[in-house]
Every structure is written in structure tokens, then in C-alpha cells.
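User: Here's a chain of 125 residues. Predict its fold as C-alpha cells.
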Amino acid sequence: MAADTTPTGEQPGVAGPTRPWRRVAGGCELAVRVIPGARLDRVGPIVVDAAGTAWLGVRVRAPADQGRANDAVRRLLADALQIPLTRVALRAGATDRRKRFLLGEVDTERLDALLPSWSTTPDNP
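Assistant: Prediction complete.
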């Protein structure tokens, strides 16, 4: 295995089968699959769709109505990453369950550190 790859053979900071994020100018872009109207607010697990794209699953109690679920996802991501809400911006997917968020000034190392906790399936869906 090359020195610039992870144990799964992926390059750090590059979206891959287990990483729903990638480096972009100004931070990282995070691919999120949202389930609005859930019983609990929760981040994870990471899911892979039929095309092989990894998405971070996010459940929020807020309904998909007038952007309330989007706002709830922004707050939940900011809290999970311990960054200011102003550094979490919706880039694409305002009306879709699949969204892309810009995480301003967040490095991929921080996201890589959270990978184990986000990769596991919750005990209580």
C-alpha cells in the first residue's frame, strides 16, 4: 500500500466508496442523504447507492417544508463537527434528499477522524 493512501486504499481527502466528502476550494464538500421527519436527529451511517456513490445519512425531526429540514441538517452538521453554523452552506439539492454541503475551512483529516463513528449502523434506527 502506498504511503499516501488509507487502509482501504483510498487517497486521503478524496471521495471514495466509504467517504462522502472531498476537498474543494475553501474546505470540503460533503454529500448527504437526508431523511426528514425522523423520530430523532442523527448523523450516520454512511450509505453507498447503486451507482457506488457514498452519502452521509442524516436524519432530522424537521419536516421537508419551506427549508426547515435543510436548516436542521446545517445545525446538526455544525454541531457534530463543532464548527460555527456560518461555515456550513448548502451547495446543491435544496429540494432533494441528496444534498451537497460546503464545510468551510474544514480539513479532511477532521472528517477522516469521524469516519469510524459515521460508518456504523445505529443500534436504534
